[in-house]
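Worked problem 6 (solution included).
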Amino acid sequence: MAEKKKISTIVSHCEECVFHRKYNQEGASFGYIILCSPTNRVVKRNDVNKIIDAPIEIPDWCPLDDYQGDNKTYEILDTEQNEQTMKKEFTENQLVYIRDVFAHECDRYIDSGERDMAHEALDIVNVVQSKYDCDEYADLESFMLDESWTYGYIEKRELEESEEEAVRLMIQFSKSSEQDPSEELKEAVNEHLYLNDANRGKTKLDVVMNRKVKINRLIILCINSCEESELIRLDDIADLLAENI
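Solution. The predicted structure is:
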């Protein structure tokens, strides 16, 4: 096994890596294999359910070994220094796959309110975008509003009326000294969530979680008008707004 892998600044073993895929043995109640997606290589096979699982050390052939930089997600941000490494390590199809994976991760982090992680994922999307002379996303808002349905260019959609009103009032609250959201803000958010089918779910918890996703997306639309401390104020009222059914 390789020692002192650069990727180990991000993950300590393969099962923490976004590229690992775990498959259960077909027709069995136990047993599995774990694959490395970019290389399609098996990194672990467990055929016996009595064996205690141990973390998978990062193998010598890990395609993420040679990434440079500080502590960004999977270290491919310094494009000048790493251009030759990327050409050596990845095919075009693999880079497109990486972009698609991290675009999906970016969406998922936006939905869960993890903006720092969403920024990290978007940085990697932009690395691949720049490599193929495609438009890069200026921020999470431009990524979320892109309706081009292609990575070749960016076409930002206009905000819906209910969306615009909810965002306006959220920004207003974030800059105020108020501790609780106003009834006007609650009503505006509820109106937007109702119009976007957020009030659906088998249980109340399902409904609240669906609403929270939409509210996290509204917060992203505030990022260019708010300081980080103001965005945190919005994070603090997200649960309250989501539960205000």
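Discussion: The CA atoms of residues 169 and 184 lie 8 Å apart.
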